[in-house]
Amino acid sequence: MSTTNQPDLLAAAQAILPDLVDLRRRLHRTPEVGLQLPATQAIVAEELRALGLEPRLGTSTTSATAVIEGALPGPTILLRADMDGLPLLEETGLEFASETPGTMHACGHDTHMTMLLGAARLLVARREQLAGRVLLMFQPGEEGYHGARFMLEEGLLDRPEDEEVTGAFAFHIWTGHATGTVHVRPGAFLAAADFIDLVIRGRGGHASEPHKTVDPIPVAAEVVLALQSMVTRRGDVFDPTVVTISHVDAGTTHNIIPETAFLQGTIRTVSEDNRAAVHGWVRRVVEGVCGAHGVTAELRIDPGYPVTFNDPAFAAFAADVARDVVGPDAVIEMANPIMGAEDFSYVLQRVPGAMFFVGARPPEEDPATAPQNHSNRVRHHEPAMAVGAAVYAGVALRHLAGS
Ligand SMILES: [Zn+2]
User: Fold this and answer.
1) How far is the CA of 89 from the centre of ligand 1 (A)?
2) What's the rounded Cα separation, in Å, for the pair 272 and 340?
3) Rounded to 5 degrees, what angle do the CA atoms 381, 386, 392 make?
4) Cα 109 to ligand 1 centre (Å)
5) Which pLDDT does position 310 carry in this prediction?
6) CA 171 to centroid of ligand 1, rounded, Å
7) So what's the pLDDT on residue 7?
């Protein structure tokens, strides 16, 4: 049963777009990085209060949540937006560019907060259709700081009034796609991202007498290549693995063999089984190559965000909502997951739900060269926010209506 006319949601979101643009530009001017974002939290809290909602502020981080109580009884759906910027010097030339040098909303989290606040406005106006509650989640620290995990540890899903959280949904804005398109995928959506730190320890000495040293540099080179052979020979091509050694540091000058070589890198996988297996392979290759050459290996693999896994039934439902809201041609099935990572994955480990992309490439940009998220020149096309707000609201209305 559908209790709402979905195309009307898009028209309603487009009607409030000028306000959303103002809000987004306010947020864009004042980005903050990490888990403590007091100025950002203050804007979000003020906007929630303006809607008649009571923000609850985080204790370990500057998160904010609020609950929209529907007129009818029912379960709770969680809608999430992240809040943090990146440590970049903005060079977009926009008149509302960051006023904090070295800090920029380069991943579009300013648009995420705005889309979710826009959805909240649409939902508050439709409370009488709302059969349950909408839990709005605003989280800091998505860019590697595990902000969502902190909120879960603070009891985000454990409060008595939230016991029936039956679904969760989030958008990520993306300049890789045309404005207004929605990109959907059941199952693995984004990868798990884990981090390698390796110290290879030999014995230093004179570069002219390598036989009197234990040179860690050729071993480091062999480890880098052996890891790539490992990926192609051990990994199932239908369960993708990326291992990238992204940082190599050893030695000081021409005539010294150093004692150590230092390597850093990342492991990306899209299934938890493969993730555990790859950790084991990396350990074996590192220990084997280092053992063969008589150096010691000090290896650390730090787990980052888990796989962002879209519940297939929920993803199909939310894609259906998106087709109703923006039209079937604007909803595109992704052939493959993306090997980036997201900490909304922690929420999706607890609640069946989904994350989708909403395209926001300015029409004047060439798709081949448009600056991407995390570029200090990225520009997100603001009309995409109406699509995001409308789909967020539609997913909540229809999930709670049980259709
Ligand atoms: Zn992001």
Assistant:
1) 17
2) 15
3) 120
4) 6
5) 98
6) 10
7) 64
Distance 172 CA to ligand 1 centre (A): 7
Report the candidate in 401, 356, 351, 321 with the shortest Cα–Cα distance to residue 126: 401
Distance 306 CA to ligand 1 centre (A): 15
**What are the tens digits of pLDDT across the range 217-227?**
999 999 999 99
Which stretches in the chain have pLDDT values below 70?
1-7, 160-163, 403
Report how far ligand 1's centroid is from the alpha carbon of 105 (Å): 9
Model pLDDT for residues 331-363, shown as the tens digit of each residue: 999 999 999 999 999 999 999 999 999 999 999
To the query of whether residue 305 is one of the catalytic residues in this protein, the response is yes
What is the CA(247)–ligand 1 centre distance, in A?
Answer: 23
DSSP per-residue codes, 37-64: -HHHHHHHHHHHHHTT---EE-SSSS-E
Task: Take residue 136 and report the two structure tokens written for it.
Answer: 């709005």
Known catalytic residue at 153: no
Residue of 32, 143, 145, 305 with catalytic role: 305
133 near 66, Cβ under 8 Å? no
Question: What is the reported pLDDT for 160?
Answer: 66
What are the two backbone dihedrals, phi and then psi, of residue 388, each rounded to the nearest 5 degrees? -60, -50
User: Residue 52: exposed, middle, or buried by beta-carbon count in 10 A (0-12, 13-18, 19+)?
Assistant: exposed
218 close to 333: Cβ distance less than 8 angstroms: no
Using only the alpha carbons of the chain, give its radius of gyration: 24
Map 130-199 to HEC letters. CEEEEEEEEECCCCCCCHHHHHHHCCCCCCHHHCCEEEEEEEEEEEEEECCCEEECCEEEECEEEEEEEE
Catalytic, out of 47, 142, 382, 392: 382
d(CA 150, CA 148): 5
Does the predicted model carry a pTM greater than 0.90?
yes
Distance between CA 27 and CA 41 in Å, rounded? 10
Residue at 107: amino acid letter: C
Alpha-carbon distance values, 36 to 28, 46, 57 (Å) = 17, 17, 12
Which residue, among 28, 372, 336, 391, has the nearest Cα to 177 in the 3D structure?
Answer: 372
* Residue 159: per-residue pLDDT: 77
Tokens encoding 58: 């985080």
Question: Residue 162's pLDDT is what?
Answer: 56
Asked if residue 162 lies in contact with residue 283, where contact means CB atoms within 8 angstroms, the answer is no
* CB 325, CB 4: distance < 8 Å: no
Q: In angstroms, what is the span from residue 21 Cα to ligand 1's centroid?
A: 19
Half-sphere exposure of 161 (CA within 13 A, CB side): 9
Counting every residue written for the chain, the total comes to 403
